[in-house]
């Protein structure tokens, strides 16, 4: 049985990996995370040697291939680590469902349903959420085992550590601590003491990391970079994304849940309540930003409810509801595939990176400003000789016209600019004598949509303006 499981998981890993490498376009975050991973592989320290706006644990995992094989390795190696964690989360979903009295076919169908979500979420390029979700689910498994045993304090400490590791993989992962508290509140013994052990173990491990990192960076205010900025509060978009999430991906079996809820055992009922709480808590992310990959935190809880609904249905007609839900996800999978233009966008992206590589035969300090499809971060990750000008004020291609003071700091040491026409026009409008002098000594690569090199030359202000 174990051999069959390993074979199936290997096949699933290869399918994800091949699809991502050949069809799924490079995402914006992909370029940023891979670039940071290479910095970590070089031995750089976040917040001391370069700017970082995320907690770094997931990127340390992606840095392992570059530590072993060198920075010349492609981003496919970082993607391999990313997909290993996705498969790891699927394994944990299976083991969590194994803690309940469910048919084996239900558990495997739920795992496949969970993996389908990734194809429908524009999340097959590198993201940090699967790293955080892995630790979230491991903590859930620990607490389920703790509730079954009279003596299992180690599971409590383990869950607290998992909450910390989830936070260190992605800031929003800290929300899982509230889900863990809910699980203990629904338990039957020593609720307050258990919550105290859970929270203290998590808090102590976070403080250890904070003191250690603050001592290395020599600045205990480094955490302020993790708070983010310019995050608007939008109740309207928050509710619209909530509606979109529920009605497109989970409404069918949420609707039938009240019908089968009374048939569930008390243990399953508690898990349904915990899953609903998890979905609602992690949906709070949409209040500050509306990104589809935020849904990755919620998918496991949706799948748990799906498993209980599917397993509880005993009459054939009711199978139409879960099957309808699966069809919704399959439709979204197809739409995601259509969005890639059957892999053509990926090919165009790769051809652009090859052209830029030809123009930059040696490591070059480069300002990247391409607004069309936010290609800047991918250029840093996919073109080996494109190097940041100043790691402490460069965001690997995320610099834009919204932050002119940040871009101006890069001009004195820059050797090249890779920009589109819109960005170049904005640079000219700065109307600074010093900027004009700096531009005259740079090389220039300008691009036009979609991802084609327009020209490459030393930049002469008078010729270009005319």
Description of the structure:
It is found in: Cell membrane. InterPro entries: LipidA_mod_glycosyltrf_83. Keywords: Cell membrane, Glycosyltransferase, Membrane, Transferase, Transmembrane, Transmembrane helix. It is a single chain. This protein is mainly alpha-helical. The protein has 2 domains: 338 residues, no CATH class; 119 residues, Rossmann fold (3-Layer(aba) Sandwich), CATH 3.40.50. 61% of the residues lie in helices and 6% in strands. The chain contains 20 helices and 5 strands. The chain has a 5-stranded mixed beta sheet. β1, α16 and β2 form a beta-alpha-beta unit. α11 runs antiparallel to α14. The longest helix has 27 residues. It is globular. The C terminus is likely disordered.
| Spatial strand arrangement across the major sheet | 2-1-3-4-5
Our estimate of the beta-strand percent is 5-15%
What structural class results from the helix and strand content?
Answer: mainly alpha
Distance between the termini: 72 Å
Number of helices: 20
Largest sheet properties: 5 strands, mixed
SSE string: HHHHHHHHHHHHHHHEHEHEHHEEH
Helix content: 55-70%
Q: Shape from CA axes? A: globular
Radius of gyration: 24 Å
Number of domains: 2
Number of strands: 5
**Low-pLDDT windows of residues:** 448-453, 455-466
Q: What number is the mean pLDDT?
A: 76
Membrane topology: Multi-pass membrane protein
InterPro entries: LipidA_mod_glycosyltrf_83
Transmembrane segments: 53-73, 80-97, 117-144, 156-186, 192-217, 238-259, 271-288, 295-313, 319-337
Subcellular location: Cell membrane
């Amino acid at each position: 049985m174990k051999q069959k499981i390993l074979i199936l998981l290997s096949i699933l890993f290869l399918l994800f990996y091949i699809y991502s490498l050949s069809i799924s376009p490079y995402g914006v975050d992909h370029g940023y995370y891979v670039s940071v991973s290479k910095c970590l592989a070089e031995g750089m320290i976040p917040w001391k040697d370069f700017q970082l706006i995320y907690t770094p644990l997931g990127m340390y995992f992606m840095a392992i291939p570059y530590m072993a094989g060198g920075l010349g390795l492609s981003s496919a190696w970082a993607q391999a680590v990313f997909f290993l964690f996705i498969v790891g989360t699927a394994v944990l979903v299976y083991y969590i469902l194994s803690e309940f009295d469910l048919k084996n076919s239900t558990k495997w169908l739920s795992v496949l349903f969970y993996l389908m979500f990734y194809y429908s979420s524009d999340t097959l390029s590198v993201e940090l959420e699967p790293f955080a979700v892995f630790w979230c689910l491991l903590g859930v498994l620990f607490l389920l085992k703790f509730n079954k045993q009279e003596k299992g304090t180690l599971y409590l400490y383990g869950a607290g550590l998992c909450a910390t590791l989830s936070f260190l993989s992605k800031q929003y992962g800290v929300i899982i601590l509230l889900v863990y508290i809910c699980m203990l509140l629904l338990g039957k013994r020593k609720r307050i003491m258990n919550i105290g052990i859970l929270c203290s173990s998590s808090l102590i491990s976070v403080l250890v990391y904070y003191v250690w990192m603050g001592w290395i960076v020599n600045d205990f205010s480094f955490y302020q970079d993790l708070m983010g900025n310019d995050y608007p509060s939008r109740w309207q978009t928050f509710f619209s994304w909530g509606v979109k999430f529920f009605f497109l991906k989970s409404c069918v079996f949420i609707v039938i849940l009240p019908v089968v809820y009374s048939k569930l055992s008390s243990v399953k009922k508690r898990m349904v309540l915990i899953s609903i709480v998890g979905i609602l808590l992690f949906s709070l992310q949409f209040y500050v930003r509306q990104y589809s990959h935020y849904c990755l935190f919620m998918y496991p809880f949706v799948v748990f409810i799906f498993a209980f609904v599917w397993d509880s249905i005993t009459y054939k007609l009711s199978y139409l509801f879960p099957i309808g839900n699966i069809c919704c996800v399959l439709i979204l999978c197809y739409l995601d595939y259509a969005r890639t233009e059957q892999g053509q966008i990926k090919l165009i992206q790769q051809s652009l990176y090859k052209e830029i590589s030809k123009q930059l035969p040696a490591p070059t300090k480069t300002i990247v400003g391409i607004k069309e499809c936010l290609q800047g971060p991918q250029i840093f990750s996919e073109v080996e000789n494109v190097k940041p000008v100043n790691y402490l004020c460069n965001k690997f291609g995320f610099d834009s016209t919204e932050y002119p003071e940040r871009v101006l700091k890069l001009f004195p040491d820059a050797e090249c600019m890779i920009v589109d026409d819109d960005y170049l026009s904005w640079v000219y409008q700065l109307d600074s004598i010093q900027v004009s002098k700096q531009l005259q000594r740079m090389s220039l690569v300008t691009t036009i949509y979609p991802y084609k090199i327009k020209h490459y030359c030393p930049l002469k202000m008078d010729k270009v303006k005319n």
